[in-house]
Design brief:
CATH superfamily of the largest domain: Winged helix-like DNA-binding domain superfamily/Winged helix DNA-binding domain
CATH architecture of the largest domain: Orthogonal Bundle
Number of helices: 6
Radius of gyration: 15 Å
Shape: elongated
Strand order of the largest sheet: 1-2
CATH topology of the largest domain: Arc Repressor Mutant, subunit A
CATH class of the largest domain: Mainly Alpha
Largest sheet: 2 strands, antiparallel
Length: 121
């Protein structure tokens, strides 16, 4: 299954929620992302079928190893790009919004160069 930008966003959201709670539910994901229950339910089904998440009988969502790898990659990209944009003078809200867009479309090579540059600052 080729993971689309929206799938990456769902996985990253699950990851962020799991940092503060051991029990992540679809309703929590929907609330954080501002999406409807049917949209979240469909996405969770696709992510489960793709091997990115598991859902236990009580509705708790967990990332698989594959999902965890995607989540950590997206989260790192988000944090580094947003931080760099703020250092360049972009206000934090705009930096966060722009980072959410950029993190999904840049190549690994470009991100590695951004990361190298950001760590030098």
């Amino acid at each position: 299954m080729l993971l689309q930008e929206s799938g990456e966003m769902y996985i990253e959201t699950i990851y962020v929620l799991s940092q503060s709670s051991s029990f992540v539910r679809a309703v929590d994901v929907g609330e954080m992302m501002g999406f409807s229950k049917p949209s979240v339910s469909r996405a969770m089904g696709l992510l489960k079928d793709g091997g990115y998440i598991t859902v236990d009988p009580h509705g708790a969502i967990s990332l698989t190893k594959k999902g965890q790898e995607v989540a950590e990659k997206m989260y790192e990209r988000h944090q580094i790009i947003a931080s760099l944009l703020v250092k360049l003078g972009v206000d934090p809200d705009t930096a966060t919004e722009d980072s959410c867009k950029i993190e999904h479309v840049i190549s690994d090579t470009t991100f590695e160069k951004i990361k190298e540059y950001a760590t030098k600052l």
